[in-house]
Structures are given as C-alpha cells and as structure tokens.
Amino acid sequence: MADIVRVEGLSKSYKGGFQALKHVDLTIREGEILALLGPNGAGKTTLISCICGITSISAGRVLVAGHDNVTEYRAARSLIGLVPQEINLEPFETVMATVRYSRGLFGKKDNDAYIDEVLRQLSLYDKRDTQVRALSGGMKRRVLIAKALSHEPQILFLDEPTAGVDVSLRKEMWQTVAELQKRGVTIILTTHYIEEAEAMADRIGIISDGQIRLVREKQALMHELGRKVLRIELAQPLTEVPAGLDTYELSLAKDGAELVYTYDVQSDGTGITRLLTALAERGVKVRDIRTEQSSLEDIFVDLVEAEGQA
Ligand SMILES: Nc1ncnc2c1ncn2[C@@H]1O[C@H](COP(=O)(O)OP(=O)(O)OP(=O)(O)O)[C@@H](O)[C@H]1O
C-alpha cells in the first residue's frame, strides 16, 4: 500500500507555550482505516487539525500525496475531507444546499450528480430536500460526512465520529465508514472508545501526551493484547507451582492461595480443561475459578503509563 500522508517531526505549541504535539512521525497508507486512539487531551484533534492545515504547525512538515500542506496548501487541502466533532449545520438549509455549499467553498464546479451519489452512499438521498433541522442526530452526522466528501477528497478525517452517540447509531456509523473505505477513501478517525478502534481500524495508533506511542496492525495488536487471565482459587495454599506443568504460564498469587494462568485468547485451545485435570491429578483442590480479560484498555493504560515513566 502506498503512503498517502507523511507526517514528519511534527510539533505544535499553542500560544502561551503549551506543547500539544511533540515530534510526531506518522505515515498513513492509501486505502486504510487508521484509528488514532488516546485519552482526552492527548493531542488527537490537534494532530488531525495540523494535518488538515487548519491549525498552524510549529515544527516539522506534513506531506499529502507529496504536497507540503503549508507551501502547497491548496493542493494538499483539496485531497482532504474533515468531519469535525461538533455538529455545526445551518438548520434551515436543505441537505442538498448544505452539501452543495461546501463543495463551492473548495472552488469546485457544481456537480449535483456527484453530490446525489454521495447522498445515496450515505442513505441520505431521500432527504436531499429536507431541512437539516428535521433530521435525526444520526442523519445530521451523515450530512457532516457528505459535506466533507463534497469536494471529492481521497482522504477523510473523522474527529470522534461517535462521541456521545448511542450504541445503534455508533454501529451505523461504523458501517458507513466501512462502505466509504470500500469505495476507495482513506480514513483516519480519532476516538477514545477502544471498541471503536477495534471494530473499524486496519491499524491503530496510540497517542498520549502529544506523542505517538505506537502504530500497529490491529490484528497484531489484538494478538499481543488478547490475553486472558484465569484465577484459580485454591482450597489449600501452595508454596510453589506444582511440578510438571511447564507448558502452562502459571504463577502464584495471594500468598499461594491463588494460581494464576495467563493464556492467549487467539490460540485454538485455551488448555483450561487439561490444566484443571492436571491439577486434580496432583491433588490440588480448586475452590473457585474466574477469568479476567486483559483488554485493549488495560494494555493501553499500561502502555501509556509505562511510556510516560520512560
Ligand atoms: N487552542 C488551544 N490553545 C491552547 N491549548 C490548546 C488549544 N487546543 C487544544 N489545546 C490543548 O492541547 C492539548 C491537546 O488537545 P486536543 O484537543 O488535541 O486533544 P484530544 O486528544 O483531541 O482530546 P479530546 O479527546 O478531549 O478531544 C490539550 O491539553 C488541550 O488543552
């Protein structure tokens, strides 16, 4: 996959001196969905605003399909659509007029056939003559996407597309984004919902404190992170892990009252039944068992904390 956006050594300090981005390097691949995941205030909005050229850069540069987004602003910007976090629509305008107006802002010639196509993609076509105020929240969000797509960009940035949105609308948005990707749009979204990154992204970038902590294929990340812990409460405490169980990743906790088995969720068999049988054969009596998923969230928090201390 070719690179469509390159961010090189990007730093951003706001007036007053606060440094929101610290030497960020990031490559976005053509056709992918990249989720930028990070806690509040991590710098996600600042990063996409800098890439889109609506916030000034303090150091470094951004290339959009080879165009520097400062020295070749127009060429770079014309390739980008940005869906902002806030719904800022003119309530009395119709859907069609709203989207047409956005296209005009980019100096593009009228092309209602294209806009109709975008509205169809977003299931808004039958609302094209409806005033924005009469739309549901989900439809308004799709109008924001239609506006962002109005000038035929190749890259779409979605800033927290589902913040404050209920579960069914969130799923609807995920579907919409997947459809857009199928049609060849490269998509970058910011989110602090881990399950959103998990559901949608090809790659996940984790950002905190103005720095990209890692960017990884989702599958690889889930593989690394998809570990579970089985806590086996023992009837009698042990002083050491019973012999002959080397194939299991076992440790003792709670002064030997608990045997902890860590296993990979992705592997075909978890080995739990075999482990429990092996324990019974060794006379180890089990009082209770419970599992804990080491979620993407745990790993995310661990990672952000560990990196923060490094
Ligand atoms: N215009 C501004 N002036 C000064 N500081 C700002 C400005 N905009 C953002 N910041 C600060 O920069 C940091 C990063 O903000 P940003 O909005 O990029 O974070 P975010 O990751 O998008 O957060 P959220 O998930 O809450 O939207 C925050 O500490 C924020 O307070």
TrEMBL record:
PROSITE patterns: ABC_TRANSPORTER_1 (PS00211), ABC_TRANSPORTER_2 (PS50893). Coiled coil: none annotated. Signal peptide: none annotated. SMART domains: AAA (SM00382). Keywords: ATP-binding, Nucleotide-binding, Transport. Pfam families: ABC_tran. GO terms for molecular function: ATP binding; ATP hydrolysis activity. The lineage of its organism: Bacteria, Pseudomonadati, Pseudomonadota, Alphaproteobacteria, Rhodobacterales. The keyword Transmembrane helix does not apply. This is ABC transporter ATP-binding protein. InterPro entries: AAA+_ATPase (IPR003593), ABC_transporter-like_ATP-bd (IPR003439), ABC_transporter-like_CS (IPR017871), ABC_transporter_ATP-binding (IPR050763), P-loop_NTPase (IPR027417). Residues 5-234 form the ABC transporter domain. SUPFAM superfamilies: P-loop containing nucleoside triphosphate hydrolases (SSF52540).
